[in-house]
Design brief:
Blueprint lengths: L2 H7 L2 E7 L3 E10 L2 E11 L14 H17 L8 E5 L1 H5 L3 H12 L4 E2 L2 H15 L5 E7 L4 E7 L2 E8 L3 H8 L7 H25 L3 E4 L2 H12 L5 E3 H12 L20 H14 L4 E4 L4 H9 L8 H12 L4 H4 L1
Helix pairs in contact: 2-4, 5-11, 6-10, 7-10, 8-10, 9-10
Amino acid sequence: MSSYTECAQSPLYAVIDLGSNSFHMLITRQLADSVQVVDKVKRKVRLASGLDKNNNLSAQAMARGLECLSFFAERLQDIPKANIRIVATATVRLAKNKDEFLNRANKVLGQKINVLSGEEEAKHIYLGVAHTNCSDKDRLVLDIGGASTEMIVGSDYQTHVVNSLNIGCVTFNNRFFHNGTISQTALNEAVNAAKSEILPYVSAYQQFGWKSVLGGSGTMQALAELLMFQNKPLIISKAFLEQTCQQVLAFEHIDQISIAGLGSERVPVIVSGLAILKALFDSFSIDQLQLSSGALREGLLYEMIPDSHELAIRTRTINGLIRKFHIDTLHAE
């Protein structure tokens, strides 16, 4: 069988994540033992910024979301429904008028959206990290979203302590930096507010312990982009986090932020994201954090793929290359 024919006949899988800050779509193909990315799309919808003080989603926020989903729907036409997972996270969980949005969104997609609980979201984030990283098996996984922050400690593919807190970079931005003004006082208030939410849970995590800390949310990716620009390893140290906080504090308004290597799409929520990350570092006494290549979407994806727990990601990749390039198996081993 030619590689083209094999590729055409291999199944497609799709995951759509309606996040509080961005909507994501991941389309992959399973080829031999490897998982190959066909398409990745990310759209800044900022759904959480459309929540009012009574947790009702605004008409404008709904419209932004539905417009994005209509674009995603076109890409799902040729994928079996059994191979599609569509989930919504914290903002939709919180929204009192979520049924109105979900009914309209389900019609656009032609498929039902599953609203994940905080615990479900956290567990899938952990699985995404476990499937895509070659870290120590005992790990603490952190994820800062637009309206929630997930904290998970686990070993291999098993979670031990799982929590999802209602603190996120978009909601914290509205709460502490709503007029765009940046100050040491506002940053301290945001850090302390996050700590007050995190600290009651810390001892439960410390009972299990961990050997590595991983995270892959937008704030951490922004810091990784700064490290990459500076030709440094993609390890976020406490010192680098503090240094970036000081760089941001040099500006008086969010619109003025200009740091070499920081993308413009990261700027609107970078200050609030840094505040939550600093609170996590301080609360868990973290010295350094490794950027994860996978999170929620990858966790959902690998749960669909047969025998996903049987082969490590490196083994899958090697087996895929052996088959694709007709490499002698004994030699490859």
